[in-house]
Design a protein that fits this description.
Elements lengths: L8 E4 L4 E4 L1 E4 L13 H13 L4 E3 L9 H9 L8 E7 L7 H14 L4 E9 L1 H9 L2 H10 L3 E8 L3 H8 L7 E4 L10 H11 L3 E4 L12 H8 L7 H10 L4 E6 L4 H11 L7 H16 L20 H14 L2 H13 L12 H5 L6 H19 L1
Parallel strand pairs: 3-4, 3-10, 4-5, 5-6, 6-7, 8-9, 9-10
Antiparallel strand pairs: 1-2
Length: 385
């Protein structure tokens, strides 16, 4: 029918299935004043996406303080089990011995009120978690659960360096994997290099944080105008989603929707989906260029300056400074600020000994720049509190 909205689907040839390119990420449901899930609105949002063709629902053990899995299971109970793909994750930080794996998984099945999980991920894999996987033979345990019909596809989500990612990818014949990727952070974590590796290996890819935790949905006005001048009727967030969706090995893009308006906007993006054309890619490149021009210094997070004798997290403070100016957002850098503050490692504890500057390959005037971090970010964060 002409003019009908049609959800974009991607073939996972390795698994002989098709998934909706938009996946519902169940980490950021709308909440009530007491922090509990606003179940009425969240259910309405899930129902709308499913009615529009979304068939991939992603939750996890810790989301919403453990309330996400039971709520998602309850909502999905009204739909035929074969009509959707359900993803959840093994909380690797809770695994201290091999026996923990099945114990946690069985608890998840009860919480979800399901007989099986379609996509089961080792959650938030990094080097330390990977060591557990090898020590406790966790993949073998998941294979056993698969033979019992409790898991269909085995994968992992990832947060570490490319080197760890490459080692992990080569460890096992994964059915799929999930990485963080957006048009700004192409060199972070697995990054575009990791994307290309999954393409070479034929491993279907699920993408998280395509909008960088919402940051790429609310860019400074002078930056967002680059997009708005080209497509005035489309949201800023849609550009980030389309950039990721233009990569052919991306099979699912997770969006942690927290409002009904976000649902509607995402459905507009993924129904009759269009990959970026050459001119639109040029717009994205221009936005990245403008954002990068706002970077205050050339810190590469190499950590040659560390450890600081006074305890300053030098790369962390420069991350605060650079990202505050990139996105003009104290809220975006707030979580990092809180973490550095807890460790008493903010720039104002610098004693100006100069040891760091002798080690810096970028020849940054670290002491002067730390003073600017205090004025430009830390003092503003304290006033904002």
């Amino acid at each position: 029918m002409i003019g009908e909205d049609v959800m974009e689907y991607r073939s996972l040839d390795k698994l002989n299935i098709k998934t909706s390119l938009l996946g519902f990420g169940c980490m950021r449901f709308p909440v009530n004043e007491n922090g509990s899930i606003n179940e009425e609105l969240a259910e309405k949002m899930i129902d709308k996406t499913i009615a529009s063709g979304v068939n991939y629902i992603d939750t996890a053990y810790p989301y919403h303080n453990g309330a996400s899995e039971p709520f998602v299971g309850k909502v999905l109970a009204k739909y035929p089990r074969e009509s959707y793909f359900l993803a959840t994750k093994l909380p690797m930080w809770e695994v201290n011995k091999a026996e923990d794996v099945e114990e946690i998984f069985d608890k998840q099945l009860v919480r979800l009120n399901k007989e099986y999980v379609d996509f089961y991920l080792l959650h938030s894999m990094n080097k330390g978690a990977f060591d557990k996987v090898k020590e406790f033979k966790i993949v073998e345990i998941l294979e056993k659960l698969r033979k019992e019909g409790k898991i269909r596809y085995i994968g992992f989500s990832f947060h570490d360096s490319y080197e760890v990612f490459e080692e992990l990818v080569n460890y096992y014949n994964w059915d799929f994997c999930q990485i963080q990727l957006n048009y700004v952070d192409t060199l972070e974590q697995a990054g575009l290099k990791g994307y290309k590796l999954t393409e070479e290996k034929g491993i279907p890819l699920v993408i998280m944080e395509p909008i960088k935790g919402g940051t790429l949905a609310t860019l400074p006005e002078d930056v967002s105008s680059i997009f708005k001048d080209t497509l005035p009727d489309k949201s800023i967030a849609s550009w980030a989603l389309r950039w990721v969706g233009s990569l052919p090995n991306v099979k699912v893009i997770l969006s942690g929707m927290s409002t009904y308006d976000q649902v509607v906007d995402n459905l507009d993006t993924f129904s009759n989906f269009k990959a970026l054309n050459e001119a639109e890619y040029a717009c994205v490149e221009k936005v990245v260029e403008v954002l990068n021009e706002r970077t205050k210094n050339g810190c590469t997070n190499c950590k040659y300056c560390m450890p600081c004798p006074a305890g300053v997290d030098i790369p962390g403070n420069f991350w605060l400074w650079n990202n505050y100016y990139k996105y003009n957002s104290l809220s975006y850098v707030g979580y990092k600020y809180a973490s550095i503050q807890r460790n008493n490692a903010l720039a104002d504890v610098c004693v100006k000994c100069g040891k760091c500057e002798n080690m810096c390959p970028q020849k940054i005037e670290i002491r002067k720049d730390l003073e600017r971090v205090v004025v430009d970010v830390i003092s503003k964060m304290r006033k904002d509190k």
